[in-house]
Specification:
Pfam families: DUF1848. InterPro entries: DUF1848. This is DUF1848 domain-containing protein. There is one protein chain. With 310 residues, the protein is an alpha/beta fold. The protein has one domain. Helix content is 28%, strand content 20%. The chain contains nine helices and 13 strands.
Length: 310
């Protein structure tokens, strides 16, 4: 299986101690986000975990302890945007993040660190020219330490729109997307950097930007040097190219406080859940009440060209 850690929250930034405790214990409990009484028990055995995909804006706390996952294959999706505290209230400064990105790449290799510049948001402050300048600066700094940049454009979910109500978001039409693609592609090509999109309907291949997959079976196959056969993840949107994975995170638990975040309902909800976190608990936050139904999730490895179960 592919373990996603996590689309729902930033485990490396805020829950790395909990994660390493779960690795030592060999399992994790994950609540169904739509029915909190249903809990899955997920094995973390290296025999069935083909790869771990870490999603983060700040993996600094995890870098020094990566020896604890030496039995696992993994790679990082590292988001590093151009925004300031206006949109990313608790995200560290750019110099710190750039240095962290470089240290991570030097430790695990550039193939295993994917740079994400997403979502792209237009405002009176964050204009196209603003993005172009920052993107070029970041490409210059990061291109020696990664092979790929993933981009996406803001999707205004209801909770995202509510959290951004104080920001004058400007609409992005297809022509705007073409402008970004044309400029970004030109910059990236000068530094031999590949650009792919994440969950975008717009076709940008004429700018040498193709549809990507963040949970990427080809990348995993390259990392483990073994062909994998994994189906597309049917639980994701149709435009998402990701293959199947199991996410061990929880919504409303990320403390970066990015106003564009789709995974947080409200700041108040996040703050309540942060107080319920226990690094020794099998759950990311909260306790078992005794009335839950805990089900052992059937795990399978995709290695060796066949499916094996645990």
């Amino acid at each position: 299986m592919i373990l996603s850690a996590s689309r729902r929250t930033d485990i490396p930034a805020f829950y790395s101690e909990w994660f390493f405790n779960r690795i030592r214990e060999g399992f994790v409990l994950v609540r169904n986000p739509f029915n909190t009484k249903q809990i899955s028990k997920i094995s973390l055995s290296p025999e069935v975990v083909d790869c771990i995909v870490f999603w983060t804006k700040n993996p600094k706390r995890m870098i020094k302890k990566l020896e604890e996952v030496k039995k696992y294959n993994y790679y990082f999706q590292f988001t590093l945007n151009s925004y300031d505290k206006t949109l990313e209230k608790n995200v560290p400064e750019k110099k710190y993040l750039i240095n962290t990105f470089i240290k991570l790449s030097q430790k695990i290799g550039k193939d295993k660190v994917i740079w994400r510049y997403d979502p792209i948001i237009l405002t009176d402050k964050f204009t196209k020219e603003y993005h172009y300048r920052w993107f070029e600066y970041l490409v210059k700094r990061l291109s020696p330490y990664t092979n790929k940049c993933v981009i996406s454009f803001l999707d205004l979910y209801k909770k995202t729109e509510r959290n951004l109500k104080s920001i004058n978001i400007l609409p992005l039409n297809k022509d705007d997307m073409f402008d970004f693609a044309r400029k970004f592609s030109k910059i990236a090509s000068e530094y031999n950097l590949i650009i792919e999109t994440c969950s975008e309907e717009v076709e940008l291949s004429k700018f040498n930007i193709n549809h990507g997959r963040c949970i990427d079976d080809k990348l995993v196959s390259d990392i483990i040097d073994e062909k994998l056969f994994i189906d597309k993840d049917s639980t994701q949107r149709e435009v998402c190219g990701c293959v199947k994975s199991i996410d061990i995170g929880a919504y409303n638990t990320c403390n970066h406080n990015c106003l564009y975040c789709y995974a947080n309902f409200s700041r108040e909800c996040v703050e309540k859940n942060l107080l319920k976190h226990n690094k020794k608990s099998p759950l990311l936050f909260g306790d078992l009440n005794g009335d839950e139904k805990i089900t052992d999730r059937k795990m399978k490895t995709y290695r060796r060209g066949q499916i094996s179960f645990l």
